[in-house]
Predict the 3D structure of the following.
Amino acid sequence: MERMDKDLAFMLRYENVAWYENGEVRILDRRVYPRRVEFVTCKNHHEVTQAIKDMVTQSAGPYTAAAMGMALAAYECKDKTEAEQIDYLTEAAYTISHARPTTVQRMTLITGGCLDAAKKAIAAGEDVSEKIVEHTVEANNLRYKKINLIAEHLVDMFPQNGTVMTQCFGETIVGMMLKVARERGNNVRIFCPETRPYFQGARLTATVCHEMGFDTTVITDNMPAFVMKKENVDVFTSAADVICMDGHVVNKVGTYQIAIAAKYTGIPYFVTGAPDRGHTTIDTVKIEMRDPDFVLQAMGVKTAADGLKGYYPAFDITPPELVSGVVTDTGIYTPYDLESYFKRGTMGEFEMIL
């Protein structure tokens, strides 16, 4: 099977995101990458769930980790009866999919696809863990192919040798965007806001961009407006954790303020990914609030005085009037008419893997 992670950066290859083998799941610890390349080893699916909660893997990484967690759950219950295995895996699918509240809808699609693959394997008397891994690789291939199409449309919006600003870590779209740009000979330069408090932009996005050969600069989270004007940024782009059908975009906190600066400066903001028809309006999304102490430190080093309070929403909400277009595999849509995406008979980024 040809794999779509070929020629992508180290951390975008399937085994380096999360991988099940011999009763264990190994997950690249993105909390310390790239200064250290370490993997967290999970011995059961509850440990995989906890790793997702603890931000061992982020962006789209949890989706692969969730699937590999289902393979591990199948290993845990392999000696049970068929009915007991299905019950066990059904419960595991719920546990893993609810690791983080904002992405439950997408995670449920992931674990649901694995559960269907498991049921088929159980009925056929096959190795269930192996079949879930095969399903996951196939699903990742399909998703990467779809994201490659998204990248084609996104790079159409980049001027030749232009300047692009990103936000947080868009995972696969970052690699595919750069791969397409490289194939077209478009040597864009990239500005990456650092994305506190986990610094995904500085550590993950910037590392992928640099590894793939692009001129990459890290800026702090309070510099985007200045850099947009001073460095003549052409396009601001991000992925999204949720794209509601009413056009609201839920993404890493900080996206909203960069979108405001982009609008004021006259720079288009293109969000990438398929709309989530499970979220008809923004009211259906629960914004995850994380440990406020994380904003009082930087990579484990306390930076604020004792006794101060922190505030840490993991995501924010960008309204449709700040979004120039939603870039999908079938083209670019206005945020005010996302129903048109599904009218073409297409499926969302994660629905297709069921």
About this structure: The mean pLDDT is 95.
